[in-house]
C-alpha cells in the first residue's frame, strides 16, 4: 500500500476538517511528521527483523523527545515526567526505547546536528535507561531534585498561575469571562452540541467523586492540540466556582481511541472497560504521582479522558534547546524516567517482574540492535516525509 493510502486509511475515522490541519502540521518538518504517524512506525516495526527479546512492560508507546513535560500531581507538587499515554499498552520494553531513540536521530537531524552527536545522545539514553533498570529503583524529578535545564523548566512552570492561563484563553464578556474564539486553538461549536456538552459536564461535576466540587460550566469550545491527536474530538471547558469569587477551572475532555499499535503487537491486552480507562489506567501505573483531576467519561457513545488544563503543564520544546550540554542533561533525565516508569509498573497484569527488568538492564547485548534499527528508521521517516510533502503540495491529500 502506498504511503498516501496508508495515511488516509488511518485518519479516515477522524474529523475531516481537522485532519486537514493535521496534514498541515505534519508537513512542517520530518520530526512533526514522525509525531503524527506513530501507526506507521509500529506497522513497519512488525514487518521488520525482530528486535532482541525483552521483558513485557507497560509503555506509553508514542515516546519521543517532546513527550516529556511538567504537570501538577494530586499531592500539589509539580513533576517532570512522561506526559502522553493515548497510545499506551502492554508491549516488549524495547518498543519504547527504539521509538525514543529513533526520535533522537530525527530531532537532531532536524536541528542540523551531525549524526555522530545524535549517535552519542542515543547511546547516552540507552546507557542511563539500562543503568536505572539495573538498579531496580524508580526515580522521580520535581523542583527540589531537578538539575540544569530541567530545574529551570520546572521553576518557570511552578511560577505559572491560573491568572496567566486565563488571560491567554479567555475574554471578558458582560461582567464575566468566556473562552476566547480568537485563540487559534479554539473553535466554535454548534449550539446543540455545545448545550449537550455543558449539560454532560455539569452532571459529571454533580455526580462523580473525581470531579471538582462547587463549580458550574461557563463555556465550552473545540480545542486543537498536539500532532498525532489532531482530528479526535476534544473540548475545553471553563468552570466557575459557585462559592469562591473569581475562581475558575479549565477542563480538557479528549476522545480516546484504540491504540494504533494493537494490530502489530502480539501481546494479549487487558479488557479495559473503555479506551479512556486504558489511557489513565496505564498513566497511573507509570507516573510516580497521578495527575490532579484525572478522570473518564462517556459522551454520545465515545469514551473521553477528562483532566485539568493546568497552568504548570507544559512539554519540553526540544527545538529550543540550542546548547548541547543542556540536551545531554535532558536526555539523561528522560532515560532515567523511562526506565522508572517501567519499574514502577513492573509485575502488574502481564508486565515483567522487577527481577526481569533488572536483568534486562544488566544485559547490554540488545542495545546495538535498537540503535541500528533506529538509524535505519530515521532515514526511512525522512523518505516518507519527502514523499508526503510532495503529495501534500500537489493537493493529492485533497482527493
From TrEMBL:
Pfam families attached to this UniProt entry: DUF2252
Instruction: Enumerate the PANTHER family for this protein.
Output: DUF2252 DOMAIN-CONTAINING PROTEIN
Q: What is this protein called?
A: Uncharacterized conserved protein, DUF2252 family
Q: Give the organism, scientific name.
A: Mucilaginibacter gossypiicola
Amino acid at each position: 500500500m502506498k504511503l498516501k493510502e496508508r495515511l488516509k486509511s488511518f485518519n479516515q475515522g477522524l474529523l475531516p476538517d481537522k485532519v486537514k490541519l493535521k496534514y498541515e502540521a505534519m508537513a512542517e518538518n520530518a520530526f512533526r511528521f514522525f509525531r503524527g504517524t506513530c501507526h506507521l512506525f509500529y506497522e513497519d516495526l512488525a514487518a521488520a527483523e525482530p528486535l532482541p527479546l525483552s521483558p513485557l512492560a507497560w509503555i506509553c508507546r508514542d515516546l519521543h523527545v517532546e513527550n516529556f513535560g511538567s504537570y501538577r500531581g494530586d499531592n500539589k507538587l509539580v513533576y517532570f515526567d512522561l506526559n502522553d499515554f493515548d497510545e499506551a499498552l502492554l508491549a516488549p520494553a524495547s518498543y519504547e526505547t527504539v521509538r525514543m531513540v529513533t526520535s533522537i536521530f530525527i530531532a537532531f537531524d532536524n536541528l542540523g546536528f551531525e549524526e555522530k552527536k545524535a549517535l552519542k545522545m542515543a547511546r547516552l539514553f540507552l546507557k542511563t535507561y539500562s543503568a536505572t533498570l539495573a538498579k531496580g529503583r524508580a526515580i522521580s524529578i520535581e523542583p527540589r531534585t531537578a538539575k540544569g535545564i530541567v530545574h529551570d523548566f520546572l521553576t518557570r512552570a511552578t511560577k505559572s498561575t491560573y491568572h496567566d492561563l486565563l488571560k491567554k484563553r479567555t475574554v471578558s464578556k458582560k461582567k464575566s469571562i468566556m473562552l476566547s474564539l480568537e485563540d487559534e486553538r479554539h473553535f466554535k461549536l454548534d449550539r446543540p452540541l455545545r448545550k449537550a456538552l455543558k449539560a454532560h459536564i455539569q452532571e459529571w461535576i454533580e455526580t462523580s467523586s473525581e470531579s471538582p466540587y462547587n463549580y458550574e460550566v461557563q463555556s465550552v469550545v473545540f480545542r486543537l492540540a498536539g500532532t498525532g491527536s489532531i482530528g479526535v474530538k476534544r473540548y475545553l471547558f471553563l468552570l466557575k466556582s459557585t462559592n469562591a469569587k473569581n475562581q475558575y477551572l479549565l477542563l480538557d475532555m479528549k476522545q480516546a481511541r484504540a491504540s494504533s499499535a494493537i494490530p502489530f503487537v502480539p501481546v494479549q491486552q487487558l479488557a479495559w472497560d473503555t479506551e479512556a480507562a486504558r489511557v489513565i489506567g496505564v498513566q497511573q501505573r507509570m507516573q510516580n504521582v497521578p495527575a490532579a483531576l484525572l478522570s473518564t467519561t462517556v459522551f454520545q457513545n465515545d469514551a473521553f479522558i477528562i483532566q485539568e488544563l493546568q497552568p504548570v503543564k507544559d512539554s519540553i520544546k526540544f527545538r529550543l534547546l540550542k546548547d548541547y550540554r543542556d540536551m545531554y542533561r535532558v536526555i539523561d533525565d528522560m532515560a532515567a524516567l523511562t526506565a522508572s516508569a517501567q519499574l514502577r509498573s513492573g509485575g502488574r497484569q502481564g508486565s515483567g517482574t522487577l527481577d526481569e527488568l533488572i536483568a534486562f538492564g544488566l544485559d547490554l547485548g540488545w542495545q546495538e540492535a535498537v540503535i541500528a534499527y533506529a538509524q535505519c528508521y530515521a532515514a526511512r521517516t525522512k523518505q516518507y516525509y519527502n514523499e508526503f510533502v510532495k503529495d501534500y503540495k500537489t493537493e493529492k491529500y485533497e482527493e
